[in-house]
């Protein structure tokens, strides 16, 4: 049965997601998630979140989806027993090597290949299954029919990020921000002797992507033509396809938005809750208008 | 003092048969055939099996090895197209297939086990442990992600034991998109797809510059490692690439000739550069030069080999 996975970038957002009917929530651990300036919780908040979610029968998934350098990787691996002691068993990771390493050391973990892994097709899904992922996240650009083909691979749960910002460059395939600015920054969470790569979409520090996509550029050719050019993007909301994804066998419907404040997150989760419940009883969801992007819409704001 | 010469391989990339026929491949050892960005690219060899077969023949007739590249971010439909190209590659016995999707690595490993697989930039090899995983799936060569520094690449090289292919010159691929930002200018510019993305089109903003190929974004500055070849030699690297998929045959020939000579010299321990090499590089670099991420800086910056020199002071 498909479940609804909601973001929780703050204790208040967690409460809103729970109130709105999320089946699962995902949280970034401060310093170790691609969140950057987006919501991350520290250890104390994480422990509280696990307790509060658990009291309502909701499991917490933990995003550990930066790609640390080897020295930092050792520190990350040292955190895993503490994560497991909190009762967390699902980790979202972003590097195939780290995924494989965790699979070998902690066979009891349920490991999800993050949307940042760039999986888009059935062969990618099969690859992540073979590496030991229990689930793989595909972008909402993958429609129900394609998702069904991915589900048919078998042996791995398929998740769809069906509410997300579709940026110009595909997730997991973008180095534009770091081309302009790449600056190692001190790791938050008390790990002051470590750094993470601010500006790298893939490795971490997404919170400072410098909004490369958001700004107007000039498009120039060799014939003197010059046009103002915004890089295309859209708020992808596939609420009208929830029934299709459920029928396709998608296991988890995931919502992007760890930066969302509770007053926005709650209604969003509630809308998808209704759509999923309708789909379960065979009722259709009326088509929804495409959401309008907020003024600041890049990874910082999504 | 020159030392014994070390063999190396210099590769480049060509999207279609027309460009291949117009290109002097004399400087290169091997050519990646196909365009990774767009299925509509003029004569994309990934889409035309008969032309791919002919391109392999043309490449070999020039005494070069043929490699096949594949799409940067294929969806399911793209897999079917690539599988057809792989069948040609397998039948013709190409020397390698480059993949940018880990799923394609598995697909080639399972269905075309005799084809050597090169892992490309967009497959996201960021770690030594990641390289080990891909090696277990049959990868025979890896291009570490372009965001890595040389020190990080050294670590991968030591760990995985596979040959690593490094970009030494050209516009560095930075992104793959499902949108084409150029197609809206068909009417306004009077240039139609698939000719639009073969124009020299740059995205500019203040001092920033990116090259657009419609559904792909590349660095506006040309990555240039001419001054740093001794560092690459010392690191044990022997496979080098000039990224020219969006460039003219003239670019491919001129820059290839520079690096053939420079690498030959560098691999023999002679690090001197020639003013005429710099002139050729300048002639073909529209927005200037950069080092990519090799030295830990932002990708668009240029770091001269000698700290007391600025890029403007290069020969």
Description of the structure:
The complex is a heterodimer of chains A (302) and B (315). Chain A is α/β, with parallel strands linked by helices and 302 residues long. Chain A has a single domain, classed as Alpha-Beta Barrel (TIM Barrel), CATH 3.20.20.70. Chain A contains 9 helices and 14 strands. Chain A has helices at residues 11-19, 43-55, 70-85, 96-105, 122-131, 144-151, 176-180, 242-248, 262-280; strands spanning 3-7, 24-28, 59-63, 90-93, 110-113, 135-139, 157-166, 169-174, 183-186, 195-198, 217-220, 226-229, 234-237, 252-255. In chain A, the strands form 3 sheets. Chain A has an 8-stranded parallel beta barrel, surrounded by 6 helices. A two-stranded antiparallel sheet of chain A has the order 9-10. A two-stranded antiparallel sheet of chain A has the order 11-12. In chain A, a hairpin with an 8-residue loop joins strand 9 (183-186) and strand 10 (195-198). In chain A, helix 1 (11-19) packs parallel to helix 2 (43-55), helix 6 packs parallel to helix 8 and helix 8 packs across helix 9. Chain A is globular. The two termini of chain A are 27 Å apart. Chain B has 315 residues and is an alpha/beta fold. Chain B has a single domain (9-313), classed as TIM Barrel, CATH 3.20.20.70. Helix content of chain B is 33%, strand content 20%. Chain B has 10 helices and 12 strands. Chain B has helices spanning 17-22, 49-61, 76-92, 102-111, 128-136, 150-160, 186-189, 229-234, 249-266, 275-284, and strands spanning 9-14, 30-33, 65-68, 96-99, 117-119, 139-142, 165-177, 201-205, 208-212, 216-224, 239-243, 289-290. In chain B, strands 1, 2, 3, 4, 5, 6, 7, 8, 9, 10, 11 and 12 form a 12-stranded mixed sheet that branches. In chain B, helix 2 links the parallel strand 2 (30-33) and strand 3 (65-68). Chain B is globular, with a radius of gyration of 19 Å. Chain B starts with 8 loop residues before the first strand and ends in a 25-residue tail after the last strand. Chains A and B meet through helix 4, helix 5, helix 6, strand 8 and helix 7 of A and helix 3, helix 4, helix 5, strand 7 and strand 8 of B.
């Amino acid at each position: 049965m498909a479940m609804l996975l909601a973001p929780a970038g703050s204790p208040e957002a967690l409460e809103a997601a729970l109130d709105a009917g999320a089946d699962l929530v995902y949280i970034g651990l401060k310093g170790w998630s691609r969140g950057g300036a987006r919501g991350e919780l520290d250890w104390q908040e994480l422990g509280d979140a696990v307790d509060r979610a658990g009291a309502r029968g909701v499991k917490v998934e933990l995003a550990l989806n930066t790609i640390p350098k080897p020295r930092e990787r050792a520190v990350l691996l040292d955190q895993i027993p503490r994560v497991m002691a909190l009762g967390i068993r699902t980790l979202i990771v972003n590097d195939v090597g780290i995924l494989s390493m965790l699979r070998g050391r902690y066979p009891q973990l349920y490991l999800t290949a993050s949307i940042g892994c760039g999986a888009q097709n059935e062969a990618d899904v099969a690859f992540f299954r073979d590496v030991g992922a229990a689930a793989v996240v595909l972008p909402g650009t993958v429609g129900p029919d394609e998702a069904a083909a991915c589900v048919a691979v078998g042996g791995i749960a398929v998740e769809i990020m069906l509410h997300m910002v579709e940026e110009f460059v595909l997730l997991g395939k973008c180095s534009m921000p770091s081309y302009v600015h790449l600056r190692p920054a001190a790791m938050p969470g008390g790990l002051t002797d470590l750094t993470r790569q601010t500006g790298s979409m893939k490795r971490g520090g997404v919170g400072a992507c410098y909004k490369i996509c958001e700004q107007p550029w000039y498009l120039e050719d060799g014939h003197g033509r010059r046009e103002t050019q915004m890089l295309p993007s859209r708020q992808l909301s596939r609420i009208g396809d929830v029934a299709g994804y459920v029928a396709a066998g998608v296991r988890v419907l995931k919502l992007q938005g760890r930066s969302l404040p509770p007053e926005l997150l709650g209604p969003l989760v509630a809308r998808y809750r209704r759509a999923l419940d309708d789909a379960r009883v065979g009722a259709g969801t009326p088509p929804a208008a495409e959401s309008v992007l907020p003024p600041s819409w890049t990874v910082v704001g999504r | 003092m020159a030392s014994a010469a070390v063999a190396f391989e210099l590769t480049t990339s060509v999207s279609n048969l027309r460009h291949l026929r117009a290109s002097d491949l004399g400087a290169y050892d091997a050519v990646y055939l196909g365009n990774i960005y767009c299925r509509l690219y003029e004569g994309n060899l990934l889409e035309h099996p008969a032309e791919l077969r002919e391109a392999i023949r043309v490449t070999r007739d020039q005494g070069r090895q043929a490699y096949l590249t594949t799409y940067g971010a294929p969806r399911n439909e793209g897999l079917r197209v690539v599988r057809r190209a792989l069948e040609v590659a397998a039948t013709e016995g190409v020397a390698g297939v480059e993949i940018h999707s880990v799923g394609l690595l598995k697909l080639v490993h399972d269905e075309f086990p005799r084809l050597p697989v090169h892992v490309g930039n967009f497959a996201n090899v960021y770690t030594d442990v990641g390289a080990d995983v891909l090696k277990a799936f049959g990868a025979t060569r890896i291009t570490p992600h372009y965001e890595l520094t040389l020190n990080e690449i050294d670590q991968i090289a030591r760990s995985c034991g596979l040959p690593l292919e490094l970009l030494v010159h050209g516009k560095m691929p930075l992104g793959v998109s499902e949108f084409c930002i150029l197609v809206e200018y068909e009417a306004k510019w009077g240039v139609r797809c698939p000719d639009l993305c073969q124009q020299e089109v740059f995205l500019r903003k203040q001092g920033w510059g990116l090259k657009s190929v419609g559904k792909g974004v590349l660095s506006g500055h040309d990555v240039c490692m001419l001054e740093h070849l001794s560092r690459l030699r010392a690191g044990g690297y022997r496979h080098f690439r000039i990224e020219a998929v969006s460039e003219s045959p003239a670019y491919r020939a001129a820059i290839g000739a520079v690096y053939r000579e420079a690498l030959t010299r560098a691999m023999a321990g002679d690090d001197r550069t020639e003013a005429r090499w710099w002139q050729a590089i300048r002639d073909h670099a529209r927005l200037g030069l950069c080092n990519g991420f090799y030295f830990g800086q932002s990708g668009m910056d240029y770091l001269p080999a000698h700290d007391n020199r600025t890029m403007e002071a290069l020969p």
